[in-house]
Recover the amino acids of this structure.
């Protein structure tokens, strides 16, 4: 089966989602629902690295790629996520070429990167280090988040960094960096996203966008525009919105007396 890395290289569309609840059952349900990958969110959740390791195991056993969105572009945090068995990382707020180099370097072993050697789950607890070492520099995935106007301005240099497999727009933070958080219809936001799309297309790099609401039509629109790395909503929204719709529908239906 073709892996996520190969799909990114071929610019083949993949759909994933976020895990923000440290519950094995919820993660297993999500992993068996049809996604190509799932990202455990350490940036905007209370999930610990220990809990993340268990969720990575579940996602991997379900046959899809486990990614981790780290809390910051920090070599120690990235190293711990990778040692726990993540197939790759999503790194927030990468605004310059130097920051992109830092992210890649934290994932890869020398001579490609600067990651220190550990013997955790990823390395078979020391029994499969050589196999992992030969895989990680070629097979691991690094996605950078483009969520500041500075990153848009530096996009060509960021995407030129060897080892950056793709990028994704964080629409809320991008609009926030322009001083208009959440106002996606403003021209400034539209222009920034249009610039992102133009650069990615010219460089033939995967485009990514966080579709926040679980809206199939918006996903189809993004796919039609050429986006190929699409995190769609998160488990809490899938659950919360489905319950909201259920009770709204229940209130509309007349109750029949026995």
């Amino acid at each position: 089966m073709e892996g996520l890395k190969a799909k990114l290289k071929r610019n083949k569309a993949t759909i994933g989602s976020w895990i923000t609840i440290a519950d094995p059952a919820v993660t297993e349900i999500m992993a068996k629902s049809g996604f190509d990958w799932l990202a455990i969110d350490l940036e905007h959740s209370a999930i610990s690295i220990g809990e993340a390791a268990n969720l990575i195991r579940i996602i991997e056993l379900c046959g899809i790629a486990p990614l981790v969105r780290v809390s910051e572009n920090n070599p120690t945090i990235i190293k711990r996520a990778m040692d726990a068995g993540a197939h790759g990382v999503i790194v927030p707020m990468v605004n310059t070429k130097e920051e992109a180099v830092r992210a890649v370097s934290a994932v890869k072993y020398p001579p490609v990167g600067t990651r220190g050697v550990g013997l955790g789950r990823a390395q078979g607890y020391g029994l499969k280090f050589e196999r992992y070492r030969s895989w990680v520099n070629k097979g691991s995935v690094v996605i950078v988040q483009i969520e500041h106007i500075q990153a848009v301005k530096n996009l060509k240099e960021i995407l030129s960094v060897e080892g950056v497999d793709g990028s994704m727009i964080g629409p809320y933070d991008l609009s926030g960096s322009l001083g208009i958080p959440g106002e996606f219809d403003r021209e400034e936001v539209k222009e920034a996203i249009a610039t992102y799309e133009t650069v990615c297309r010219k460089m033939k790099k995967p485009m990514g966008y966080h579709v926040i609401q679980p809206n199939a039509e918006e996903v189809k629109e993004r796919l039609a525009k050429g986006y190929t790395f699409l995190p769609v909503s998160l488990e809490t929204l899938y659950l919360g919105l489905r319950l909201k719709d259920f009770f709204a529908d229940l209130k509309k239906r007349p109750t029949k007396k026995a």
